Amino acid sequence: MSAITETKLEFAKLGSRIGAEIRGFDLSGELSEDTVAQIRAALNEHKALVFREANIDSDEAQVTFASHFGPLTKAHPTVASVEGEENVLPVDSENGSANNWHTDVTFVVNPPQASTLRSIDLPAYGGETLIASSAGAYADLPEELRNFADTLWAIHTNGYDYSVPKNLEHKNAEERRQEFTRLTFETAHPVVRVHPLTGERGLFIGGFAQRLRIVGLSNTESKDIIRLLQAYVTRPENVVRVNWEPNQLVLFDNRITQHYAPDNYDGQPRKLNRVTIAGDIPVGVDGQQSQAIKGDSTTYSPTVPAPAPAAAPAAAVA
């Protein structure tokens, strides 16, 4: 067994509201409780962490790293995993580009608390991942709009394949859509979610909230309101653009971010592998939990209580 890593982590900020990176920190060995607590504290602060030269060169190593932060989900509720790796989802350009803002798997009642992405095959240019702070978006709202958003609930569903716009469909788009929607999930989530560790409020919307509507409103009203709120999420000051390198891993907080993979690499191969960490049931500002409407997610992911706040001080920022 590898020696337990003991070190003080120093993350360099990538933006004022979201994102920090560290280079050359070896994630492949056993990590001490103190190191895991430092990473958790940095994730709470920065919401997206980029580990460059991370020495994660296998699915097994990625699974081991992600497991430090809680039990894992299966790869996906409906989409097949990497062969022989039930926790690993291939994010492969051959299956389409996820060029729509979304938060992972919010159509279930217990979405992942965090996601990890590992670089496998990268294009010569393009292929970045954009990650947005929904906490920054909420903070930007005028007080009257914040108060309104606090009262809203939205239905999230997998009733369509968000990753394949009709005008950019790949040759296997219909097969992919059938796989993605082979089981139907619908969940009512608060539009404003309270982060269980930091107490921050964030807009919990994105791609899977756009199929149906805000509870109590018409489709037209719902689309207009979601479009208005979503515009705050994607303001440039709330977004970090993560450039990919070989031997890189990204960890982001699924509770309080959205992400987007622009299709800007001219059909070159792009493949990342994703492992997600099981999460709690979202809670709104009134203390009410999300409610499942259709679909049973228990075979996809356990529901876990929010982990205790990290005891260690926040990691230093370079």
TrEMBL record:
Keywords assigned: Dioxygenase, Iron, Metal-binding, Oxidoreductase
Pfam families on file: TauD
A GO molecular-function annotation: metal ion binding
Composition bias, Polar residues: 287-302
Family matches, as InterPro entries: AtsK-like (IPR051323), TauD-like_sf (IPR042098), TauD/TfdA-like (IPR003819)
Residue ranges of domain TauD/TfdA-like in the record: 11-276
Residue span of region Disordered: 287-318
Record-level GO cellular component terms: cytoplasm
Cofactor(s) required, per the database record: Fe(2+)
Keyword hit for Oxidoreductase: yes
Family: Belongs to the TfdA dioxygenase family.
Listed PANTHER family: ALPHA-KETOGLUTARATE-DEPENDENT SULFATE ESTER DIOXYGENASE (PTHR30468:SF5), ALPHA-KETOGLUTARATE-DEPENDENT SULFONATE DIOXYGENASE (PTHR30468)
Protein name: TauD/TfdA family dioxygenase
Species assigned in the record: Arthrobacter cavernae
